Amino acid sequence: MKDRFRKRGYYFITDGNLSRRGNREDMRIAVEAGVGVIQYREKAFASGALYEEAARLKAACEGRLFLVNDRIDIALAVGADGVHIGGSDLPLPLARRLLGPGAVIGVSVGSLGEAIGAESAGADYLGVGPVFPTATKADAGPATGTELIRRIKRSVGLPVVAIGGITPENAADVIAAGADMVCAISAVLAAKDPKRVMLQFEGLFL
Description:
Blueprint: E1 9-13, H1 23-32, E2 37-40, H2 47-59, E3 65-69, H3 72-78, E4 82-85, H4 92-99, E5 104-109, H5 112-121, E6 125-128, H6 147-155, E7 160-163, H7 171-176, E8 181-183, H8 186-189, H9 194-203
Parallel strand pairs: 1-2, 1-8, 2-3, 3-4, 4-5, 5-6, 6-7, 7-8
Helix pairs in contact: 2-3
């Protein structure tokens, strides 16, 4: 297994549509909470605005692993640590060729076959889900449950980031199934005190 992504804990993804405070403030809170991975995901912006905000966030991430969702061009432009891609994005081998051998590349998967394929293609970690039903991502697909995490961990040597419908109340089951990190967007960004919720997730890994 490669060592570019050896993380445990809470994995933070920005979402400007859900945020009460804005992406930059949310990221500041995540840094303050000790989050180790920040993924910038913003679907609504044109390329110029996307670049400008990504550059500001990268400059303020204080050494956290900073990944860009989907957009390899933006990741290259701002000097991000890597990208997270899905099935409709550029193929993983091409992403690797463009970003270079040192970049972190995560891949979203929803089945054991996809997980095995992503590992064979050179992914550094897997985003597995949606574990539970979620309304955050319209094209997320049906919930996979925690059993898929168990199956992937038995067959694949990559770290797993679980995502989709995760809350402080059900996250322990997800971690028990083998997730190395958990990502919860709604449960954090809709909270009055997002730092407290982030710390709750972090505390589950102690």
